[in-house]
Amino acid sequence: xxxxxxxxxxxxxxxxxxxxxxxxxxxxxxxxxxxxxxxxxxxxxxxxxxxxxxxxxxxxxxxxxxxxxxxxxxxxxxxxxxxxxxxxxxxxxxxxxxxxxxxxxxxxxxxxxxxxxxxxxxxxxxxxxxxxxxxxxxxxxxxxxxxxxxxxxxxxxxxxxxxxxxxxxxxxxxxxxxxxx
Length: 181
Fold this sequence. Notes:
- The structure is a single chain.
- The chain has helices at 10-24, 29-36, 41-51, 56-69; strands spanning 74-82, 89-97, 103-112, 115-118, 128-130, 135-141, 154-158, 163-168.
- By secondary structure, it is of the alpha+beta class.
- The protein folds into two domains: 10-69, no CATH class; 74-168, Immunoglobulin-like (Sandwich), CATH 2.60.40.
- Strands 1, 2, 3, 4, 5, 6, 7 and 8 form an eight-stranded mixed β-sheet that branches.
- A hairpin with a 4-residue loop joins strand 7 (154-158) and strand 8 (163-168).
- Helix 3 packs antiparallel against helix 4 (56-69).
- The chain is elongated.
């Protein structure tokens, strides 16, 4: 018969206490689920992280979440088309805010070879603030470009200084309203 002894001593007791402290930092399901029912997911995550306490693991999770929460995520899409009442084909640049907070567009342009084509549309003045999940679109004549494929040339700068590049938009309806008007 093999006998196993249970570890003991000051090191074992200190390790056991550390594990208990870490485990006790996590709230029970009952304390988490009820308050979460009537709030948005950002508030719910804040409540969970607040309940974790101030241990190293909790501080690390809080730091990671702050980075994600304040990240600016914007999708920029470009397509060509015709706008009613305007002669010739147009290049449309669409900006969608996928961030959890507002963003502000301060500059829109296309990098066409050695010269930038600034988009200055009096119908869509800048700066423009977008709420989360809001989209906005502006346009300029295709005749301003040397290149024929302009879908990847669009650029958008936010007030934070971050610049986003465009991708081709393939999901565009043949006609419809222009977002952000």
